Amino acid sequence: MTAYAIAHLQEVTPHPEIVEYIERISATFEPYGGRFLVHGTQHEVKEGNWPGHVVMIAFPGLAEARAWWDSPAYQEIAPLRSRHVESDIVLVGGIPEGYDPASTAKAMREALPAG
């Protein structure tokens, strides 16, 4: 099942290390089947506050996403980003083919207190 690395880059301080990070990141995730879905594009806030930028990388599964994050290649370049970017980064699994949100709603309704 597809998994995603999602980054919310809130405050980016321009720096040569950021350029180097961007130049090198693809080589760190490609061995794990990763590919950019969102990178360097504008977003439109419809509700709330979302300053900064969004990056999404898709992986074949959570195991590959975790392996990439923990890899020596990625950990070597991660400080190039973290020294200059305030960010939140999550790894999240996708949903199975044919997912029906009504079944999730049903389970939630059944878990509600009677009343």
Question: What order do the SSEs take from the amino end to the carboxyl end, as H and E?
Answer: EHEEHHEH
Q: Note the total helix count.
A: 4
Main sheet summary: 4 strands, antiparallel
Radius of gyration (Å): 17 Å
What structural category arises from helix and sheet content?
A: alpha+beta
Shape annotation: globular
Tally the beta strands. 4
User: Taking strands numbered 1, 2, ... along the chain, how are they ordered across the largest sheet?
Assistant: 2-3-1-4
The helix content, as a percent range, equals 25-40%
Mean pLDDT: 95
In terms of per-residue confidence, which ranges show pLDDT below 50 for 5 or more consecutive residues?
A: none
Could you tell me the strand content as a percent range? Answer: 25-35%
Q: Could you tell me how far the N terminus lies from the C terminus, measured between alpha carbons in angstroms?
A: 38 Å
